[in-house]
Structure prediction request, 136 residues.
Amino acid sequence: MIREICKDEMFLARKAVPATQEDLPVAQDLLETLLAHQDGCVGMAANMIGVNKRIIAFENDGEYMVMFNPRIVKRSGPYATEEGCLSLSGTRPAKRWKSIKVEYQNEQFQVRLKTFTGWTAQIIQHEIDHCDGIVI
Prediction:
């Protein structure tokens, strides 16, 4: 189900709670909402659709990926950039890392560890910031 985009900065500033298998339908809604906005959006966190759970969905080299309970465990190559967001107006400055290693759970809630670089790494960092209640 395509959900409305949350623009309430007070809600977006709340730290997300861990996702469980009961949240699989939320992940499906998140992915469907992201696909509906793919012309102007490359990633979303669950709080952007009004659900305070630690789930992100993003475009990764032409395919879409969902992560449950992601966290960055290693980072290298800091740089400064500006980013926009469907939930917030305009662009804002952000510090990002060229390479990140992320620990997350897949749709079967198996723990995975994967390294991402470049644009995909930047998208993931933005969405994890959402999970952490960081409003850039």
